Queue: 4 jobs
Job 1
Amino acid sequence: MPSCPETRSRIDANGGLRTHDFAPNPHVPCTGEQREWFSPMMQENAAGFEPELEQACCPMCESAKSEPTPYGKAPFALRRCSDCRLWFLSPRLPEPEMMRYYAGQGYFQSEGQGIGYSGYEEQADALRQTFALLMRTLDRAGAARGDLLEVGAGLGYLLSEAGDYFDTVSGVEMSAGARAKAAQVSGATLYESLDDLDPSQTFDCIVATHVIEHVYDPVGFATRLKQHLAPGGVLVLAAPHMGSVFRKAMGNRWPSFKYPEHVAFYDEDTLRSLFERAGFGQVTRLPYPHAFPLSLILNKLGLPAPRWTARFNLKLPATTVCYMGRRGVS
């Protein structure tokens, strides 16, 4: 695995610091057969898209030492850091290619080909239930107060549920189409990037659910968000739980093995470590039951899903790992 450069200077279009430069990394062109793996939708949303992969070191600790794992789908493979034990994608798409895709119109309108979100709007009721539960959890923790910023706002379902708990709600969302829908659904103030915020603007609570697994420089991302927290404010990160019984039971069929957009995979230890590396105190785990349409669960298990199953949602308790860290008051 290549050595990591020392600098982290680029700014991620979704609001966080971009990953290491990776200029020295060898790039691996895809074969014609592998190129066909990318959905036509992805090529449509990234004009001139030519998949060229890069080898990666650990996104969290920058170690060049890693081990192969049995997970992946050609041309992508999962490795595990020998030092901090984070699971990460290597080879992977260079970050600028992924950023171009996220900014397109199709990420929340996937046709179920493995990239993007299939039927995202059809999951609106289940997502609202999930975010309502999260709001109650934050309220019990004394964190649902003041001003909220959500990074990766999607179609605005969390912001909509948060309106009854916070004085103001704002969001960051790269996709122009999703951003417009989020503003309409929630009435929140939406930004394209953290760069659009005033550098001195702060919030009492910043939430990023199912975002950190997309981030190429997670420590830089969390550190950047901490700069926008008021003293004593909290950051909440939630990600697919790599240590869950569902991943262990489903193996390569685990739905959160979403290639190429998921580039890092967290369990309890690595997500807590991320907060600590970014300088947060009082890091605590939060419950995060996630509701899913019954039809989606059956589809992911390869079972028949009659149309009526779409009307029912099931809350699964251990699909997502969630932690909260607090910025110091000084």
Job 2
Amino acid sequence: MRYLKPFYFSIALAIMGCKSNPNPPGTIAALNISEDTTYSDTAGRPSIINQQFAGRYLPVQDNELLIDCSGKIFILNDENELLKSNYQKNQVALSYSYESSIAKISGIIKPAITNGRDTIIVSEVKEVKPKSFDSECYNYEFIALGTEPFWSLEIIPDENIIAIKDVAAGKAYRFSYRKPQISDGNYLYKTSNDEGTAEITIKKENCNDGMSDRNYKYSAIIVIGDKPLSGCAIKKGDKL
């Protein structure tokens, strides 16, 4: 089985994820998406300019969203389901509900009325692919991974997500983001959902994943229920 380790390690580093609760609480509210997506006849007229967009594609509940590299959130009008079909084709083997992917599209902006979100009318999908630690527009706080057993973690404040993928168990867990307790450069996250609790301790210390020559600046210990998992973590902006 040793020859399979690089394969599983690459999956973990690319951030994996089986669909869990189809309607996790707080997704729309946390992203501050207005339920009123109506448009005025004047201010809501689409621009005639086809523009390029890059960011994270989120198929959340009854909306499809794009969070661009600046953190701006757009509602997507994708009548031909170009994004959805590409997203489904490119999902990793283990994924959680509403997992975001990196996307590059072109389209026309339709401005919203006051307090609403602008809409992008999608005309072309250039790319849809899973996230990686060095992906542009991926505004994670930390990602982490472990081997033997293989697991991964992503903490994404602007998506209101703490997600854990236990590859060995074939399970993906999605929790709401909670701000950490920070002391001496160490981070402690505590969160829960209907299925249980998770506690994540990230310490500023040298760490090696045991399978590559990468040296990490943080270690990570995750406890899901009473199951501990250990590995290394990457803080946004770290260079490997």
Job 3
Amino acid sequence: MNETKKETAAQDQKGGFMSRFGRRGEREAADATIGERAAAEPAELPVRPAAAVREPSAPVGRDMNILTEGLVIEGNVFSETAIVIRGTVRGDVTCRGDVEISGEIVGDVKGKNVRISGGGVQGDVTASEMLHIDHSQIKGALSATHARINNPIEGDITVRGTLTLQREANIQGNIMAAGLSVEEGASMNGQITISRERPATPPVRPAVVAVPTPTVETEISFEEVDVAASDETSGAEE
């Protein structure tokens, strides 16, 4: 009886060991299969968020000329591209692009969009599009398509579009504009003309038709005179 129990226990121990070994082999096979699948599938790369594209507020590099603070130019300045003036120019400034001024200019300024902030100009300022003046000292006439002013001006202002006078504006001169916007606190001392008249269209001249001059042919005939007969007649008369 004891031997039978021992054999049964031995079989159970043997069966249990083999069972555990079988389960371990199954787990290893399953792990190997999962590893093969993972190796076969391409790894997904982490997706990085797209970087936001920042638009430059002003032209940079070769598209902009910068006159740094402390630079003094004696003479006129001409630029095909945008220009930033932080120094001093004693002469006229002419630019086909935008002009930004925070320095001092003794002379006239011409540009596309002209912005004067914290600077000074002793001369006329002409902007083909927008003129913006803020906390600057200006002594001269202003001309632009649209203008926004927020400081004292000594000179006449001509604007083909809308002129906006902010609270610190103090205009000592005449104003001519198609539209005027005045904030509380702004002051003006001069004649104000609001005109939306369009420039007069030049009269159309009738087309000139060239009339050919007729050619007149004149025929001149000379009679033949008998010279001998004339001589005899003259002799007889004598």
Job 4
Amino acid sequence: MRWHAHQRGNLVTFRLLLQFMLQRVPDPYPPPLRNRRRRADCMGMPASTQPYYTVDEVLAFPEDGNKYELIYGELVVSLTPRFWHQQVVMRLTHLLHAYCQRETIGQVFNVRADLSWGRRDVITQPDVSVLSLEDSGIDRWADVRHVPLIAEVLSPSTARHDRFGKRLVYRDQRVDTYWIIDADDHTVEVWTPDAQFPRMEREQITWWPVGVSQPLVIVLAALFGKH
């Protein structure tokens, strides 16, 4: 079919008019608006909403067989320890008690000791602790200030807190020596307040308090032996 010039012109005009009209018709399915959050909305938000506890609140908990500790306001709950855990605790307690009695340097505890150093957001219950003679006449755990030695025997439910949170508490309270005992691996991490890294012991551990003539040397093979 042949088109005359005026017909071709009319067709072009019609196409331009149709294109113009389509551009003015709103899209029934517009693209979704992008959620443009402000920079301030994306920064500084807490990772969790875990409640902040105080010593008084934790001490008011009913007795249910669990161990409740407080690490700078964070509640830590531990289950009843394994039998092997308690065996190592008792062996270490016996060795430390005999040494402290002989050298007259302090008292050894492996019972529930709510150590807080007078803070409102800290309670720790070490597996084994040695209190100095300076605190021998106290009436409350909250009044304890000088703890030359603390030992924690690792359990699956406590390992992270023993190595991190509680270690920071003991560092801040200037506990002279902190032993982290791995009874399964037969190793001991030895920490002091100013240490950046622990000293790993696999053969023996030595505790030599200030003012004492002879150190306590514990052979780990004897501590972890199956007897």
